[in-house]
Amino acid sequence: MWFFHKVRYATTRWMGNFRNKHLPLKTLILRVASDQNQLMFASIAATIDSMQVLSVCRVLELSRKHNIVRAATSIIRQRANVRYYSDKPALFSSTQDGQNVVNIFNNTYIVDEFTNITPSIAEKSGRKLLKDPANPLSIIKKLIESNFPPQEYTVFDPPEPAVTVYENFDSLNFRSDHPGRNKTDTYYLNSDIVLRTHTSAHQGHCFRTISTPGFLISADVYRRDEIDRTHYPVFHQMEGARAWSRDDFATEEELIAKINSDTLKIPSPGLQIIDSNKQFEESSNPKQPGMSPELCIALSNHLKRTLEMVVGGIFTSIRQMDRDSADKEAVQIRWIDAYFPFTAPSWEMEVYWDGDWLELFGSGVTEAPVFDMAQVPNHVGWAFGLGLERLAMLLFGIPDIRLFWSTDLRFISQFESGRINRFQKFSKYPSTHRDVAFWLKEGSDPKDFHDNDFMDIVRDHAADLVEDVKLIDKFTHPKTGRHSLCYRIVYQSMERTLQSDEINALQDNIRSEVAKTFGVQLR
Ligand code: DAH
């Protein structure tokens, strides 16, 4: 009972300021303290405003240990974020002088022909899942961070996802015609500003400003993508990097000796490693021009030992948490040659899990121009990027990427800060599908119709009620030569059974929006 006592105590102390103005809040907290009823709590929370919800979170956090309160805190926090967004001005508006603008992140961006951010994406950017200590993504983030010595690596959590095109692409050596820059792949606020497509966008800033030799950056990233169990337009990455300055050493031999001695200090991982010592190869995975083979090898070794140590650390912690898997064999990993515009040589690290090799990290030796553009010339080092959802799905056994965003108590009550446990599946609500078929405009080529444009319309109308969208049929009329496309939308909620009326209404809206936006003729 101590925690109720604590809530009551904190409540009475802290209620002083609110006594008359915020009566529903008082009622709410007292109910939580006495009824112990999380569902009631959640439903009341839905009726009060976001500032009050946030205040309740703060009080409840005092008693985080208790299950009910933890679950309720989490749901309230998520609601608060959603509400935080709905309290904001409309995403699009026009100024007094008739200028169309995007209002987001407490800023205003002038709309131009690149603007393609949508309301459903804007709402997601307000959720901040990594700030919720009980979300599996932030549990993984913390676990990885705990393997890096803080005196060597600074943790940097960038505030908002709006970055310049320069930061996201140019500063990382992306060619001007790289497909990642296309509007079909990336969300633009306008032609200068994008929602970061990867955490690498902050490398330059961190190399320039962070005083430790290494850093870790974790954040939400955005890509216009298909919809299915493992793809979502918003996901989370962790970036890591480590640098040495040539200016700190009299000769290159000394620099290499220091890197090698730093490598020896990295704890050994207890993994089975395939191809760990694979070096650069001029034909398939070349080193950078101007870097000596010895330096390239020293940096590659430091990079590989570091990532092996991280994976080893993660699996050791899991073994300690989960006694059932204590006597499983060593985890296997392997290194595969890769290509990234900002590293050479480059590798991916794969881990063997459930009978499959799964890519975990992209990594490599940072290209000299990246350091130059970050205004720290004369540096050498390496970097890596990791998809947090993928690792969390694997470690917690979470089957669908949409679950990370769920506010269903059956989901959020299963997780606790600092602990990795197997997700217990709860019954899946039934799914049902509807098709959208249409004729493209006369003379238009199906290649010019982009799946991702269709996906965004679906997302804007049906958000997380959609499990999957696929192009299931393409057809050319033998006489008229007109092309027809048919997309199948699978509707399924993580939280309830959807009613046909509701799906039909969503489907109607999607159909008319598709007709209007693309000028197609519905079939
Ligand atoms: N930014 C890359 C991506 O999103 C991942 C990555 C690869 C990051 C290599 C790195 C790196 O720092 O060195 O696919």
What does this entry look like structurally?
The radius of gyration is 25 Å and the shape is globular. The chain has an 8-stranded mixed β-sheet with strand order 4-8-9-14-13-12-11-10, with helices on both faces. A 4-stranded antiparallel β-sheet has the order 16-17-15-18. Strands 1-2-3 form a 3-stranded antiparallel β-sheet, with no helix packed on it. The protein is 36% helix and 23% strand. By secondary structure, the protein is α+β, with helices and mostly antiparallel strands. The chain has 16 helices and 18 strands. Helix 2 packs antiparallel against helix 3. It binds 3,4-dihydroxyphenylalanine. 3,4-dihydroxyphenylalanine binds next to strand 13 and strand 14.
Question: What summary fits the major beta sheet?
Answer: 8 strands, mixed
| Share in β-strands | 15-25%
Shape: globular
Bound molecules: 3,4-dihydroxyphenylalanine
The proportion of residues forming helix, as a percent range, comes to: 25-40%
Number of helices: 16
Distance between the termini: 63 Å
Mean pLDDT rating? 84
Radius of gyration: 25 Å
Total strand segments? 18
SS class: alpha+beta
**Stretches with pLDDT under 50, minimum 5 residues:** 1-23, 33-40, 47-51, 61-66, 80-86
- Order of strands, main sheet, comes to 4-8-9-14-13-12-11-10
List keywords for this structure.
single chain, 523 residues, alpha+beta, 8-stranded mixed beta sheet, 4-stranded antiparallel beta sheet, 16 helices, 18 strands, binds 3,4-dihydroxyphenylalanine
